[in-house]
Amino acid sequence: MFSINLCLSEDKIAFIDLDLVLKKSKIGQSYLLKINKKNEENIKNLKSKEDVLKKIEDGIKKKQNILSKEELDKEIFSLQEKIKKFRSDKDKIILEFNNMKKENLNNFFNQINPIIQSYMDENSIDILIERKNIFMGKKNSDITETIVKKIDSKL
Fold first, then answer.
1. Which of 42, 58, 65, 67 has the fewest CB atoms within 10 Å of its CB?
2. HEC profile of 5-74
3. How far apart (Å, rounded) are the C-alpha atoms in residues 53 and 50?
């Protein structure tokens, strides 16, 4: 009635923290620096455009009682058009940034993939799992630091 199933596995499993590899490896840091620099440029650019729009809006509010209704409507319409263009430009910048970020990260992972595969072959590792998908594991199964050193020495 009772049955005991034993599960024995000879597969060698290791895990790696790819976020840490990206942050600690020299090549990963260069990609992150490029991504962060572009992001800061975009934020600075958008902030300056937003400040200009706020100044125009404040100017309209100050002239509100002085201008005729037609002139006020023209300026408000003009401001609304500039706001639409700003939003459109902002969406375009965000899309371009996300594409650039994705492309850079793909390039990074394409460059480190052969190094990781080679390490797995040399050490007879059958399965490599991302650390964030692990609940618990032995510290000696974490190959993150070793991989970072290999990447830095080869790239």
1. 65
2. CCCCCCCCEEEECHHHHHHHCHHHHHHHHHHHHHHHHHHHHHHHHHHHHHHHHHHHHHHCCCCCHHHHHH
3. 5
Determine the number of helices (DSSP H) and then strands (DSSP E) in the chain: 4, 2
Q: Quick check: 75 and 67 in contact, CB under 8 A?
A: yes
Cα–Cα distance measured from residue 151 to residue 155, given in angstroms and rounded to the nearest whole number? 6
Cα Rg of the chain (Å, integer): 27
Express each pLDDT in 55-101 by its tens digit.
999 998 888 888 888 988 999 999 999 999 999 999 999 999 999 99
Residues 6+ apart with CB under 8 A from 3: none
**Closest among 45, 55, 58, 38 to 86, alpha carbons compared:** 45
Exposed, middle or buried: residue 21 (CB in 10 Å: 0-12, 13-18, 19+)? Answer: buried
Reduced DSSP (H G I as helix, E B as strand, rest coil) percent helix, strand, coil of the chain, to 5? 75, 5, 20
Place of tokens 């052969």: 114
